[in-house]
Design brief:
By secondary structure, the protein is α/β, with parallel strands linked by helices. The chain has a single domain, classed as 3-Layer(aba) Sandwich (Rossmann fold), CATH 3.40.50. 37% of the residues lie in helices and 23% in strands. It has seven helices and eight strands; from the N terminus they run βββαβααβαββαβαα. Helix 1 links the parallel strand 3 and strand 4. The longest helix is centred in the last third of the chain and has 19 residues.
């Protein structure tokens, strides 16, 4: 599927995402926002966007930091990521800019939108859902589940699927339990899929190269979580794609 850099803006910051779509089709299709991990936009979210395009969606790999920045330096990663972890409002507004850009992209039906995210990106799409954004659904893959602004009853429009590794040291059982309680109390249509023996970053085939303790690829969890996402989207959008 073709893909191309896709520029949009938030609060004066130029954001450079990557749009993937099937250019042989001329109908309006559901749009899926794809949010990167803590280092920024790189080949992983771009590949996921292309995979979604192969399934018939239009997908935008979003840029949460600006100018398409990606870093493997832990210090710089913290400088980029921590302000959005500390400010739910900033995180939600930046993600909403990506969603709005996707809604206006060629081939997208703005009434049928969803979002997926990985690690930091999983946190982002959950914050987007908590904000009340007009989404059909969100999927978090090994995402951070905690928030400074819990979901309010009646505000969340999106259905929620969270795919979590049972051995994830960055999202301990207490955080998982709190998330479940939050979703229940807010009346959200939610699912939690816990993958046994899987750690943080289980979708990343190159996880070992990151050299981070507690981050590891898990082939079964990767395959099963992607299948769960496909079933989730089939429920939301079929027979549209």
């Amino acid at each position: 599927m073709p893909n191309r850099p896709f520029e949009y803006f938030h609060d004066g910051v130029k954001l450079i995402g990557d749009l993937a779509w099937d250019d042989t089709r001329h109908d309006l299709r559901p749009g899926i926002l794809v949010v990167h991990e803590g280092g920024g936009i790189n080949d992983h979210p771009r590949a996921r966007a292309r995979a979604l395009a192969d399934l018939g969606y239009v997908a935008l790999a979003a840029d949460m930091y600006g100018n398409g920045e990606f870093t493997s330096d832990p210090k710089r990663r913290g400088e980029l990521m921590n302000p959005m972890r500390e400010s739910a409002s900033l995180c939600r507004e930046r993600a909403r800019a990506g969603l709005d850009a996707l809604a206006g992209a060629p081939g997208v039906d703005p009434a049928r939108l969803a979002a997926i995210g990985f690690c930091f990106g999983g946190m982002v799409v959950l914050e987007l859902a908590r904000s009340g954004a007009a989404l059909s659904g969100v999927v978090s893959f090994h995402g951070l589940l905690s928030t400074k602004e819990p979901a309010e009853r009646g505000r969340v429009k999106a259905k929620v699927l969270a795919c979590h590794g049972a051995e994830d040291p960055f999202v301990p059982p207490a955080q998982v339990e709190a998330f479940a309680g939050e979703m229940k109390n807010a009346g959200v249509d939610w699912q939690l899929l816990v993958h046994g023996h899987a750690s943080h970053g289980f979708t990343r085939a190159d996880a070992a190269s990151l050299g981070m303790a507690g981050v590891a690829f898990h082939a079964d969890a990767e395959r099963r979580s992607w299948r769960a996402m496909r079933d989730f989207f089939d429920e939301l959008f079929a027979p549209d794609c």
